[in-house]
DNA sequence: AGCTTTTGGCTAACGTAGTAAGCCACTGCG
DNA sequence: CGCAGTGGCTTACTACGTTAGCCAAAAGCT
């Protein structure tokens, strides 16, 4: 029997793709093995466990999403950058629901954890976006968490099929971005000094 | 052997409590049966499946959270109401992480689905909060979705153990509420007519 | 080339979890 | 008291994750 020529990266990538196709909860070791033309136990030569596989998929997804957002905000600032970042994240989630679902519900173990590294890097584009607003330095962390919460929340609900009645989600998304933009520019203590 | 005297409501309530204690993913039919002093298959006299159990726990949780938020905004309006609603939701999530986790990741099947009914009702307190702001009627749905996204996002990330460095999450939460409040009051097209 | 080492498949087997089938005692009503 | 129905039970089956141990293919060395 010829070898399949797998390696950890190939297994993780195939797992991410399969999760996007059939949904993250439906991603089992057996199905992934079948997809790869291999018996289930063979996967354990490349990943330590399903938990390990899931974490690697999550790290891959976070990295890809970070890159997409970083590319989207190139050459933009202020509201344009906010909009571009939010759209890029949303597009990623809609295009890769399985990957995104994989990123949810992990406790970051330590600073050496690849997922923690990816998570830390994922803050960078949002930090760049916030640089376009005139925030007090002490507020940067709060604003970062706010952005994270807001876009994570919207993406999760939309991906999970919430937002029933009417479902003009594109409009709602733009409205949400405007809301955040207005809120960021209306911060007290910085009256009217709109980035100048 | 004397009967345990179970009924669906008791099973669901015990499942919700157990999920809060040990985490929703760790809630298995076996563990719940053990908690109730009963063998696993006996549970199937009260719930159709684990999926059914989970949906019922989710419906219970949504109902309880809705009640808590509704009570919290009694007699309040505007920013006070927004704050109270957000705090009530956050408190619920932190006090009942298992129940909350149960509410995530369901596709609402039909209008008869109890979970869909509960979900529809859960919008009411937020609608009431928005009445305190001077929004265009066409924007109500957008604003509702925005509130849902924002508080869902924050609660999820906090419950999942995100928000590492510094972890002054209380402050961040208040900052987020202020951001939303400012954004809602700065809506264009309604200049300065602050609810009067 | 031929020998050796490592690697990446495999089969077999086990534990856990969800679930179906079917039995039988307890509860409650006439 | 007798009887119906409910709510326990045991047994059994399936799917899945995981481990152990075997063996051939690939890769490296002389």
What does this structure look like?
2 copies of one chain form a homodimer. The first copy, chain A, is mostly helical and 196 residues long. Chain A is built from 9 helices and no strands. Chain A is elongated and about 70 Å long. Chain A starts with 7 loop residues before the first helix and ends in an 11-residue tail after the last helix. Mean pLDDT of chain A is 91; it is low at 192-196. The interface between A and B is large, with 43 and 43 residues.
Give a quick precis of the structure.
Chain A is 63% helix and 0% strand. Chain A is mainly α. The N and C termini of chain A lie far apart (68 Å).
**Number of helical runs of chain A?**
9
Distance between the termini of chain A: 68 Å
Runs of chain A in which pLDDT lies below 50 for 5 or more consecutive residues are 192-196
General shape of chain A: elongated
Oligomer: homodimer
Radius of gyration of chain A: 19 Å
Task: Output the structural class of chain A.
Answer: mainly alpha
Strand fraction of chain A equals: under 5%
Largest sheet of chain A: none
Give the largest interface pair and sizes.
Answer: A-B, 43 and 43 residues
Share in helix of chain A: 55-70%
Give the topology string of chain A: H per helix, E per strand: HHHHHHHHH
Q: Count the strands of chain A? A: 0
Q: What is the mean predicted local confidence, pLDDT of chain A?
A: 91
């Amino acid at each position: 029997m010829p070898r399949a020529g797998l390696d950890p990266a190939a297994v993780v990538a195939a797992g991410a793709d399969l999760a996007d196709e059939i949904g993250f909860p439906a991603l089992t070791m057996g199905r992934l093995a079948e997809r790869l033309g291999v018996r289930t136990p063979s996967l354990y030569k490349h990943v330590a466990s399903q938990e390990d596989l899931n974490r690697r998929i999550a790290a891959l997804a976070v990295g890809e999403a970070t890159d997409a957002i970083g590319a989207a905000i190139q050459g933009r600032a202020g509201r344009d950058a906010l909009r571009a970042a939010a759209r890029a994240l949303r597009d990623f989630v809609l295009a890769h629901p399985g990957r995104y679902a994989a990123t949810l519900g992990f406790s970051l173990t330590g600073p050496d954890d690849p997922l923690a590294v990816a998570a830390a890097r994922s803050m960078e584009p949002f930090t760049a976006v916030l640089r376009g607003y005139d925030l007090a330095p002490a507020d940067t962390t709060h604003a970062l968490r706010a952005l994270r919460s807001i876009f994570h929340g919207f993406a999760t609900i939309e991906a999970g099929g919430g937002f029933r009645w009417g479902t003009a989600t594109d409009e709602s998304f733009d409205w949400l971005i405007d809301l955040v933009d207005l809120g960021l520019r209306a911060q007290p203590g910085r009256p009217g000094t709109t980035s100048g």
